[in-house]
Each structure stands twice: as structure tokens, then as C-alpha cells.
Amino acid sequence: MATDHYGSATRLINSARGNQFGEAALVDAQLAQAHATLALVDTLRAAGEKGTRASGEPTPSDLTIYRAEHESIVMGLYQTRAQARAHCEDLVRREVGDSVFLGWVPDESGDDVPEELCTGYEIHCTGYVVTPLTVAAEYDREADE
């Protein structure tokens, strides 16, 4: 079970404030600081930070976003494929109704490839596409060569 470092830090700070004995208050304050530091580490890990540079600065990581489009007209950018798909599906449902089968057909094999929304069992493609886009965390000088 994970330790609640924020909760531990808060309890220790309150204990240090209420403690009349100098050494005990100092120990509580130091423990509170340690728990606060561990809470920050937990937060950075949860946010997906992959480490730190020599300067101590967090190392950024690439991000994948998903573009919903219709016949090359961008309708929106989303953090998840599911949200981009939902946008397209809602628009197609307005046109064809709820009784028609909808399915996503990838352009090629692989996990992060564009996919087009198709209708019916005879596969009529709609022109609605979800495309994954990778946003680089940093400029790569050699990438252009």
C-alpha cells in the first residue's frame, strides 16, 4: 500500500507546532519535510516524468495527442483516442442515426496509425479520421538531417 506522504507531512507539521519540546518539534519538522519531498517525487512519477537532468530539472517526455478531422478539416485535438473518436462518432450519428453500425478501420497495421470511421457492414468510409500526432518534448537538431 502506498504511503500518503502529503497526509504524513501535514500531521507532522501540526505535531511540531503543538510540541513544546524543542528537539521533538525539530524532529517532527524534519520528518514533515522528508514526507513533503517524497510527496513531490510521487507527483512527478505520476505525471510521467522520466527522470532529471544533471541540473536537477525534470526531463520532459514526448506526448501523443489525437486529431479528429473530416476530409482534412481539423475538428479538434484531444488527449485520448477515445475522445477524438467520440467527436467523430457523434457527428456521423447525426447524419445516419443510431441504428447504423460504426467501426474504425486503420490505414495500416500498428498501434499508432490513423483510422477512419466507416458505417454499415458493407464498409462505407465517412471521411472522418482520427490521427495520432507526437508532440516532441524538445528540439532535435539531427532530426532534420
Structural description of this entry:
With 145 residues, this protein is α+β, with helices and mostly antiparallel strands. It has two domains: 5-46; 63-135, no CATH class. Helix content is 38%, strand content 25%. The chain is built from three helices and five strands. The protein has helices spanning 5-18, 22-46, 81-96; strands at residues 63-70, 73-78, 102-106, 115-119, 124-135. The chain has a five-stranded antiparallel β-sheet, with helices on one face. Strand 4 (115-119) and strand 5 form a beta hairpin. The radius of gyration is 25 Å and the shape is elongated. The two termini are 48 Å apart. The model has no long low-confidence stretch (mean pLDDT 78).
Helix-strand pattern: HHEEHEEE
- Low-pLDDT sequence parts: none
Biggest beta sheet summary: 5 strands, antiparallel
Shape: elongated
Helix content: 25-40%
Number of domains: 2
Question: How much beta, percentage-wise?
Answer: 15-25%
The number of helical runs is 3
Average pLDDT number: 78
Major β-sheet strand ordering = 2-1-5-4-3
Specify the structural class: alpha+beta
β-strand number: 5
